[in-house]
Amino acid sequence: MPSSAPADHTAHPPADAPHHTLGDFDFALPPELIAQHPAPERSASRLLDGRALPPSDRIFRELPELLQAGDLLVFNDTQVVKARLFGAKPTGGQLELLIERVLADVPGEPAHQVVAHMKVSKKPALGTVLHMNGGFTATLLARWPDADGPLFRLALSDAPHDLMAAHGHVPLPPYITHSDDADDERRYQTVFARHPGAAAAPTAALHFDAAVLDALHARGVQRASVTLHVGAGTFSPVKVDDLRAHRMHSEWYRIPPETLQAIADCRARGGRVVAVGTTTVRTLESWARSGRTEGDTDIFITPGFAFQVVDVLLTNFHLPKSTLLMLVAAFTGFDHMHALYRHAIAQRYRFFSYGDAMLLTRKSPHAPV
User: Fold this and answer.
1) Sequential DSSP letters for 228-263
2) Helix (H, G, I), strand (E, B), or coil: what is residue 269?
3) Which of 65, 77, 110, 185 has the smallest count of CB within 10 Å of its CB?
4) Under a CB-based contact definition with an 8 Å cutoff, are residues 236 and 321 in contact?
C-alpha cells in the first residue's frame, strides 16, 4: 500500500446536474437477501442484464454472450490482505484494528507505520502502546489524515504485511455476520488478484473463474487491469442529506501503460470499455479528469457526472444510501437504477459483496475529451 496522503480534490457534478438528497437513494431490502456466503461456484451467481427495461435474468457464466468481440474488460487486480487485527489496551479493554494502508518507512520516523480504523469502547490517548493478539504491539501516533480525521496512524513492532499474514483475519464487510474462515480466505478474493493492499474486495470480479475468462477470450473480448486498493471506507455511510457536503474516503490507484494502450486500441477499433466494478470506474474516471495514472482519488460520482472512459459496467447490488449506489444511478440513470433494484428484490436476487451481479450500459453522454 503506497504512502501518499489523501487527495485534496473531489469531482462533483456540474452545477446544472439534477439535485438529489440522501433519501433519494434509499430502498427497503429484506434482510434475508443479504448474501452471507458466496454461491457454490463463482460463475453460478445470477446476472441481471439491466441494459434495457424490462431487464432479463441470466446466470453469470452467460456473460460472454452479452459482450462483443473487440470489447475491453478492465479488472481491478488488487489483492485483499488479512487486514483485521485484534488486541487490547493496557487497561485490558478489547479493540480491533482494520488496516487501511501501509505507509512507506520515512527516515527519522518510527518504522512499520500503518493507517487503520479502530473499533474500541474508548479511544486510547496518543502514544499508547496496544498489545495485539499474536504477541506484537501497535503504538498510536496520530489521527489520520489530520487531527480531526476518522482514522489512526500507528507504528507496528514488525513488518505490517508479515504480521497481517500471520495474525490477521479476512476483513469481511460489516453486514456479514459469521467469523471469517478458510472458505472466506479463498472466495473473498478474485482469481486474478496480484497486488496486496485492499481492505475490501472488488466484489464484481469475484464471479469470474477460469471457464468464464476462457470463454471471453474465445469471444474476442480483450482484458486489461488497473489497481485500486479498496478501503474499508467503501462501507462508510453517508451521513448528510446534502450530498455536496459528504466527505468522500480516499483510495490509492495505479493504471499501467499497457492498460492505457489497450483503452486507446479499443477506441480505435470501435469497441466498448467494460469496467468490472465501481472501483474500476473510479480509477478510470479519476485518470480521465486528472491525467494522473497513479495517486490517491476521492472522486465522488453522483447523477449528472459526465463519464469520459467507461461504456459498460458490471457491478454487484449495493447498500441503500451508499456512494456506490449513487455511482450506479449516475451511470445508468436514476429511474433506471431504481427499476432494476425493484426487479432484483422481487426476483429474490442476492445482495452485496457475496451476492449477484448486473450488467449496465452508460445512459449519460460522454464528456467532451
Assistant:
1) E---GGGGPPP--SBGGG-----EEEE--HHHHHHH
2) coil
3) 65
4) no
Residue type at 357 in one-letter notation: A
DSSP 168-206: -B----TT--SPP-HHHHHHSS-TT--EEEESS--GGGG
Instruction: Please give the model's pTM, rounded to 2 decimal places.
Output: 0.93
Distance CA 326, CA 328 (A): 5
Taking the chain, what is the end-to-end CA distance rounded to the nearest angstrom?
Answer: 31
pLDDT exceeds 90 at position 4: no
Q: Say if CB 171 and CB 199 are below 8 A apart.
A: yes
Return d(Cα 324, Cα 216) in angstroms, integer: 26
Q: Per-residue confidence at 369, pLDDT binned at 50, 70, 90? A: very low
C-alpha grid cell, residue 200: 475490501
